[in-house]
Amino acid sequence: KILETLQWAKIHPDEGPLIGGNFGPYIQSQRTDLYNKYVNELLKKGAAYKCFCTKLRLNLIRKDAMKHGEIPKYDNKCRHLSETEIQEKIAAKTPYVIRFKLNPKDHEPFTDLVFGHYDVNIADYEGDPVIMKSDGYPTYHFANVVDDHLMEITHVLRGQEWQVSTPKHLLMYKAFGWSPPQYGHLPLIMNSDGTKLSKRQGDIQISFYQDKGYAPDAVLKYLTLIGGGYTQTVDNSIEYDSLEDLVTKFSVQNMSSHSGHIDIEKLEQVNKVYLQRALNDDPDLITEQAMKVLRKHLQSKYQDRNSGDLLDKQHVTDILCWAMKDSRICKITDLTEPEWEFLWKTPSNSQIQELCEKSSVDICKILQDCYNVVCQLQEFQEYSLKKALSVLAKEKGINMKLFMHILRVSLSGLQAGPPVVEMMSILGKEASLRRLKHAEHFINDVQCVDIKS
């Protein structure tokens, strides 16, 4: 999933399980021989030991500590087993893990690239940590040290929740006699109200923003606004920055040590900027993306029914330009909302049905007259449409408000939306005429049925 997310974000790793590299293998299950080699090295040095304690005993230790208001931690019992006791337990096939020895007198302060000086004696807060599980797989604490060393990692940037574990990792580097990388811990991203994000929340996953239609470049830019790493000018700007720009301008010294807060409104603003830039730079590409989104939505919603009678490329491009000009949308998927569905879909009969209740006027005659007037227009522009419809309403003595309502429902099936002449202009002459005729025929059929009844 992480690799898929990176691919979506156009962030391409220099090496990894899909592309290989000089420091593979890159799948943990294929590195077990390496982990065994280095855990045995710690065992030989006396820096680690086998622990045979059962889950039951560990649970009892934890419960007893909590009962007395103490920090739950392993009591290091198996550290003191004799070689004879160890061999007896192995012979009896007693399951065991391997733990790393923490020396209370030997702790490792370090300079965090984001938070500065950090000095915590990890032995005050936990017992000897497990570095190899009973199934032969390493814990993160051990694997990350071995992997980072073998892969020649120089800088580690990770979430603040790992900061407390870094002294433990530094002690492992020391036990091996290796030089550690530099560590920087990134502040957490919080909800807008300051509460912690939860895995139960949909918006904690990048896939949430992907499915909602946010552009990857916009999401990356937005993260810089809440996470820092840039000068104040860049931090406060929602102007366009390419991925290359962000890479060039980034400096870990400018990272904020304060938690960022999710602000969907700001993300919408950023995405709008990026969508407009994409439309200017490559309208064909953004149009193809929009058509894919719209086609998927309409086919999913209407299945075998006529899904999208206006999904031709030029129309979609025109709609995008129109929608962006007046900031009607922030992202492509906004065009799948009910208020914009008329752009792609002829109103259903059930939407037009309510016009049949306007018994005070001859709806069919109004639609027929409107159809004839629109047919005769040489220029299908908002100004000429507005003038022609106003003249028609005056000549026929039709209330203008009622007239516009009849046209709106016939064209879109909606009770509200953009001005009718603007709606007709963006739909185009052919589609507008087709919808007027469709509404006229449907209402005529309904009225004929009523007369027969």
UniProtKB/TrEMBL annotation:
Residues 1-268 form the Glutamyl/glutaminyl-tRNA synthetase class Ib catalytic domain. SUPFAM superfamilies: An anticodon-binding domain of class I aminoacyl-tRNA synthetases (SSF48163), Nucleotidylyl transferase (SSF52374). One of its GO terms (molecular function) is glutamate-tRNA ligase activity. Pfam families: Anticodon_2 (PF19269), tRNA-synt_1c (PF00749). Residues 326-439 form the Aminoacyl-tRNA synthetase class I anticodon-binding domain. The keyword Protein biosynthesis applies. GO terms for biological process: glutamyl-tRNA aminoacylation. Coiled coil: none annotated. Keywords: Aminoacyl-tRNA synthetase, ATP-binding, Ligase, Nucleotide-binding, Protein biosynthesis. One of its GO terms (cellular component) is mitochondrion. PANTHER family: GLUTAMATE--TRNA LIGASE (PTHR43311), GLUTAMATE--TRNA LIGASE, MITOCHONDRIAL-RELATED (PTHR43311:SF2). Belongs to the class-I aminoacyl-tRNA synthetase family. Glutamate--tRNA ligase type 1 subfamily. This is Glutamate--tRNA ligase, mitochondrial. It comes from Magallana gigas. The lineage of its organism: Eukaryota, Metazoa, Spiralia, Lophotrochozoa, Mollusca.
